[in-house]
Amino acid sequence: MPEPADPLRPRQRRQAVRVLRAGGLIAYPTEAVYGLGCNPLDPFAVGRLLALKGRPRAKGLILIADDFSRLEPFLAPLPARRRKAVLATWPGPVTWAWPARPWVPDWLRGAHDSLAVRVTAHPLAAALCGAFGLPLVSTSANPAGRPPARTALGVRRCFGDAVDLILHGETGGLAKPTPILDARTGRTLR
Fold first, then answer.
1. Could you state, in order of their start, the residue ranges of all structural domains in the chain?
2. Architecture of 10-169+176-182 per CATH?
3. How far apart are CA 184 and CA 186, in angstroms?
4. Per the confidence metrics, is the pTM higher than 0.85?
5. Do the Cβ atoms of 180 and 116 come closer than 8 Å?
6. Cα–Cα distance measured from residue 18 to residue 36, given in angstroms and rounded to the nearest whole number
7. What is the residue-wise DSSP string for the chain?
């Protein structure tokens, strides 16, 4: 069976990695809406993203990755049964609030002891994470209180030139943002 085509062209891949390494913001399609992302370990980039959205730091952010191994360094151990239940949903459109390791900065966790994480099944979002080699912050591309953008043009209308790179592509077709579940209990949070 042939490998699926890479949704990122080589030039896009180089440009996206360059923008992320320089502390820039990228908009990209996800399972339901366009996401706004950056390097999660760059406090300046995360601060810029929060300011652009008007999002309170205390709410925390979601990290997405193409593979669980990229998220694992951020996450505290879970009991084997709970870990197995979470991992069975990935890659896929389910976000889990997983206990964070003590070193994870509050600009990612917000006022929580957990970190919202997802192994994305969206081909372009996954390719972007793979190219960068780290998870990405992934929050809906919209100012707080406004509907999320579902197209590249919608991102441009929301933010003008404040986003450093917009990757064009189709969203995954979900009507609503991914559900968020508690990894410790399985309880639905959103």
1. 10-169+176-182
2. Alpha-Beta Complex (3.90)
3. 6
4. yes
5. yes
6. 16
7. -PPPPPSS-HHHHHHHHHHHHTT--EEEE-SSSEEEE--TT-HHHHHHHHHHHT--GGG--EEEESSHHHHGGGB----HHHHHHHHTT-SSS-EEEEEBPTTS-HHHHTTSSEEEEEE---HHHHHHHHHHTS-EE-EESS-TTSPPP-SHHHHHHHHGGGSSEE--------SSPPPEEETTT--B--
Q: Tell me the two tokens of residue 165.
A: 């790179």
Residue of 90, 56, 20, 57 lying closest to 98 (CA atoms): 90
Tens-binned pLDDT, residue by residue, of the chain (190 aa): 444 567 888 899 999 999 999 999 999 999 999 999 999 999 999 999 999 999 999 999 999 999 999 999 999 999 999 999 999 999 999 999 999 999 999 999 999 999 999 999 999 999 999 999 999 999 999 999 999 999 999 999 999 999 999 999 999 989 988 999 999 999 999 9
Contact 107, 43 (CB under 8 A): yes
Joined together, the tokens standing for residue 132 give: 């960068």
Contact 16, 136 (CB under 8 A): no
